Amino acid sequence: LEGQAALDSGALAIAEHEGKIIYTDTDKILLSGNGDTLSIPLIMYQRSNKNTCMHQKPQVQRGKCIKKGQILAYGAATVDGELALGKNVLVAYMPWEGYNFEDAVLISERLVYEDI
After folding, report:
1. pLDDT over 90 at 100, yes or no
2. 28 lies in a domain?
3. What is the pTM of this model?
């Protein structure tokens, strides 16, 4: 279900046909296959309709062979092609060691050690 939700969100860049990656950077991915070269533009820090930031990160390297439908770039809230929203955690925002300008977000060590 999370994989389908990630695909439907439009946050992922998907290969339209199989081929070989000939160039990749943060702006675009060039895919060569069937005698032509396809340029796949990546979204970089654009505003969505909900006033959130949309950004895609390329996940393929130059020289790699790609199949049709394979994920080329991940977007916000996606990991390995699946929706990854995380968890709601209660944190404390308070002065660090007394009354000063050094504010901090304090969390429990258990969150770190148990990888929550």
Report:
1. no
2. yes
3. 0.68
